[in-house]
Fold Alpha/beta hydrolase fold-3 domain-containing protein.
Amino acid sequence: MAALHHTQPSFNNQQLGHTSHKHGMVVEEIHGLIRVYTDGRVERPPIIPCTLPSNTDDIASRDFVLGRFTNLWVRIYAPRRPGNSQLPLLIYFHGGGFCVGSAAWTCYHEFLTTLASKANCVLVSVSYRLAPENRLPAAYDDGLSVLTWVKRVWSEGCSEQRWWLSQCKLSTVFIVGDSAGANIAYNVAIRLGSCGSLRPLNMKGLILIQPFFGAEERTPSERLASATATRTSSSALTLAASDAYWRLSLPRGTNRDHPWCNPLSAGASALLGLQVPSVMVCVSELDILKDRTLGFCVALAETGRAVETVISKGVGHAFQILHSSALSRTRTQELMSHIKLFIHK
């Protein structure tokens, strides 16, 4: 699996719009994370290290390639010592604005290893195609491909997958993600109604952690972020970075009112297509996305769907992945406890 984790060169000192690089001008950049040139070249410096799958005392993890041409792959986490009862299955999508990130990132590997142990579940972490090389809906397509793959390996009785499949209660599947991964989870759930039967998989719920949605109209928390225009230690997402991610990931010629970005652009009735009975939405108090997420929760509840909202006080975007303060660690443990209760109802 090491061959899957491509290392990009570190950035030089080139500035946006300058032409001193052999690949032309820099047409888009999110500082330290991604740089895009006029000839289409994309650079992603290895700012966050990757790690190979590993075993802890109670959780084993392994990687599997699903698509040789698309490089779609998953990392699966399951108990090393199966218990007497089958466990919920969580399909997890990482964050990164659709443009960066990997299931191999150390921060995700550590978070999901702990979550699998604390929440007593089996996890399939998806490494989907990234924008701008693969703009949306590529990531949504990959999400559905993973669900179809799980159904296929179960129906075929694939011996290579028995170590984790035998522990899954496939009638209790949850689609989960954080940030852009939560957006993917939501849009995969919306598409379930048109993708054919996935039996024996039964989608019991959706868990959206700081979901990455947007719109042309700013919310108060976004306007506040724009006014301060600084990245604080409490949040990993700025408004400028958010806008850049959308420019790089949405279909060309669209704006932030595209329904993949703004699920309320056509009114709350669009939420009626959500193919899950219950939803848990996790909000960070200091996240620039806070107000938009809370508005989404209200609209979702108005459709009659069961919505559980969890607010993490005193922390910002991606605190559970990128921050290591004592408060962040406490809030991460609380978040995992909420997830455990939700999936074992």
